[in-house]
Amino acid sequence: MSAQAPEVLVASKVELRYGAAVAVKEVSLSVRRGEVVAVTGQSGSGKSSLLYCLAGVLPVSAGEVWFEGNVLGELDDEELSALRRERFGFVFQYGELLPELTVEENTALPLRLAGQRKGEALELAGQVLGRLGLDSVRDRRPSQVSGGQSQRVAVARALIHKPAVVFADEPTGSLDSANANTVLEEFLLLAKAQGTAVVLVTHDAAVAARADTRYVMADGTLTPEGDQ
Ligand SMILES: Nc1ncnc2c1ncn2[C@@H]1O[C@H](COP(=O)(O)OP(=O)(O)OP(=O)(O)O)[C@@H](O)[C@H]1O
Question: Domain ABC transporter: where (predicted)?
Answer without folding.
Answer: 3-228
